[in-house]
Amino acid sequence: MADPKVLAIVLAGGEGKRLQPLTADRAKPAVPFGGSYRLIDFVLSNLVNSGQREIVVLTQYKSHSLDRHISETWRFSNLLGSYVASVPAQQRVGKRWFQGSADAIYQSLNLIFDAKPDIVAVLGADHVYRMDFRQMIDAHIESGLQATVAGVRQPLDQSDQFGVIETDPDNPAKIREFVEKPATTPGLADSPGEFLASMGNYVFDAKALVEAVVADSKDDASRHDMGGDIIPAFTSAGEAGVYDFAYNVIPGANDEDRAYWRDVGTLDAFYDAHQDLIAPVPAFDLYNQRWPIYTRQTVLPPAKFVHDVDHHPGRAVDSIVSPGVVVSGGYVEGSVVSHGTQVDSLAAVSSSVLMDGVRIQRGARVHRAILDKNVVVPAGETVGIFPELDARRGFTVTESGLTVVPKNVVVNDDPRD
Ligand code: ADQ
């Protein structure tokens, strides 16, 4: 197939229950990440950097901030037929919302009929990584199979979080069995502690995908899920191949950075991925401008670090600090600090993620915490220093002891207030 026409469909309707409270009023792909980004910026940047210019984003759950972000950020000139279109669930085929990711595609078949692609790439919207999709599409065409699943190695104890790919021993590029989120799975022959996980990114021959989701829509026993139903169906038909992410080459990336892929599905994973960004030699390098990650440009002044009136220095080390931040006489370490946040005199923020517009007032202390937008930590208060107190105040405290404070909350010491 020379120069195939490709339509990219980004699935962005997921609820992201395990990221609560960050997904209380936004879809998971709209969750802020890395000081300036939202999760969906990673897949969209990868698409644009891969030369893909026809992109539809299927949204459903609490899609307002996602729609706004897409329309404000991802606007192409349509001169060359380029578009990123955010398409909310529209009940085109009946009075019901999307049942699952396959139903989201079934209900959006008009987009495929309009674009008339040869190939459809279906991609998840909530992972942090760099990937050149052209390389996967080339491998798909080369294989002659109808469906290709991107695979990445993951630790064995995570099999219940992912689709598990078992390849054909005689032809390792072909999938012999695909099981969605099994409790356990055997390890790989060459690496017993790992299995091959589906990345939730797929490439299909357009016609075969249309036939598969139409057949699935008529199957009452189906959950209408891409990983649970559609990929197993292609596998049973002997038509599913695997594209190993380990072979994806990215300009300007070292081996660790190139292989980086994180499903930030839980609060602890979300936090750990932030720590990966700020390590002195980061596991994921936001500064690789040969494969830039794009996001909305805000009109804000540069970050500033100043002594306060009593000459206490304002400092940040081992941190990422966004425009509009003011650190005046306070100290920030090992943290990601987003737009317009203020850290006042004698306040200390360590190992934390602060989203836009957070205010850390005089002498307050924050440690191992995620503070959503516009949280205020008043003078002398703490967050994350005493996790039991945080739990009593009604904040989420994760398994690893991280405290997460929802949007717009003014932190109060007394749980009874
Ligand atoms: P999950 O992420 O658990 O597993 P799912 O919840 O279906 O699967 O989410 C996949 C993508 O589809 C996400 O980007 C989500 O936002 C979106 N989505 C979910 N429901 C949707 C709906 N009704 N409408 C529109 N979009 C929707 C999947 C695969 C696994 C794979 C992991 C990798 O099923 O096999 O291993 O991704 O993280």
Describe the structure.
This protein is of the alpha/beta class. It has two domains: 6-278, Spore Coat Polysaccharide Biosynthesis Protein SpsA, Chain A (Alpha-Beta Complex), CATH 3.90.550; 304-405, Hexapeptide repeat proteins (UDP N-Acetylglucosamine Acyltransferase, domain 1, 3 Solenoid). Helix content is 21%, strand content 28%. It has ten helices and 29 strands. The chain has helices at residues 40-49, 64-73, 101-106, 109-115, 133-143, 206-217, 226-236, 255-258, 267-278, 387-392, and strands at 6-11, 32-33, 37-38, 54-59, 83-88, 119-124, 127-129, 147-155, 163-168, 171-180, 194-205, 240-244, 261-263, 304-306, 315-317, 320-321, 326-328, 331-333, 336-337, 342-343, 348-350, 353-354, 359-360, 365-367, 369-371, 376-377, 382-383, 396-397, 403-405. Strands 1, 4, 5, 6, 8, 9, 10, 11 and 12 form a nine-stranded mixed beta sheet that branches. Helix 2 links the parallel strand 4 and strand 5 (83-88). The longest helix has 12 residues, at 206-217. The structure holds adenosine-5'-diphosphate-glucose.
Termini separation (Å)?
A: 66 Å
Molecular shape: globular
Rounded Rg: 22 Å
Largest sheet: 9 strands, mixed
Alpha plus pi helix count = 10
Give me the secondary-structure category. alpha/beta
Architecture of the largest domain in CATH? Alpha-Beta Complex
Helix/strand layout:
Blueprint: E1 6-11, E2 32-33, E3 37-38, H1 40-49, E4 54-59, H2 64-73, E5 83-88, H3 101-106, H4 109-115, E6 119-124, E7 127-129, H5 133-143, E8 147-155, E9 163-168, E10 171-180, E11 194-205, H6 206-217, H7 226-236, E12 240-244, H8 255-258, E13 261-263, H9 267-278, E14 304-306, E15 315-317, E16 320-321, E17 326-328, E18 331-333, E19 336-337, E20 342-343, E21 348-350, E22 353-354, E23 359-360, E24 365-367, E25 369-371, E26 376-377, E27 382-383, H10 387-392, E28 396-397, E29 403-405
The protein binds adenosine-5'-diphosphate-glucose (ADQ).
